[in-house]
Specification:
302 residues; mainly beta; Porin; 14-stranded antiparallel β-barrel; 2 helices; globular
Length: 302
Amino acid sequence: MTKRLLSIILILLMSLVPSVSYSAFMDWGWGARPAGMGGAFTAIADDANAPLWNPAGSAQKECCEVSFMYARPYLGMTGVNLGLNYASALLSTSGNAFGISWSNFSSSGQYAENTFCFSYSHMVSRGLFTGFNMKYMGHSFTTDADTRNDPVFDGGLSSKYGFESDVGVLLKLDDKFAIGAAGKNLLQADMGLLDPDVTEREIRGGAALYPSDNITAALDVGYRAEKLLISCGGEAWLPDGKIGLRGGANMREGSLCEITFGASYKERMGNDKALRIDYCFVYPVSIAGFVTSHRVAVSMEF
């Protein structure tokens, strides 16, 4: 049995390990800043990470933004070589925002998931935002002589793509409090190569508290694949607005899953441009051994 076959078997089995994955197209919590707050971002969603967290939040932006993220999940786990990539661009104008993004998950060059997303957000009234995503998403396997004989690939298919959609709403009650909700994968596209395998719907709700201009605290509750996920976190910026610090944690089915820490550096370049670098460290406490995940993102506002 080749290493390639072992890699594909590992990917197929990952959906059975609660601490690592729900299933294919799991919600990896794209972006370094949201992950640094434990994944509590549904009621915040105020930057280029918004489309895959809560598409309604994009219209909060008063400028345009592009962002690129790379992550290495579960470093230290034997035989696992995973990578995450995320790129997003937002064009915001007069209470409307349009976004395009690409998210990618890969494992050892043997398996890949890609999601191409078009996002639209609209400010309905002061403080009330709605939005939706249209996604073209799919997964693909790299096969060889060993894996081609597997019944999963017997029909000649090694990839499958389909359309999905998300919707979201965000309400800023005042400058101190906000709530948000998002429904994901509403079409339940069939991604099965052999048997039907629909994408899992997900519902998320969240609240954010802004006790001051520099501090944010947030709580998210999500439900997917009959599993309850609770995330909480916070963010604080130094008075000059250049250094940001954050931390958070999340629980699944009542068990602590991850503890996260993050930091940002933001440099303003004139009145309407800024460069931000985000870093996130994730410690999955539910996995035996010292296994960590690292994320780095670079964003530009203009």
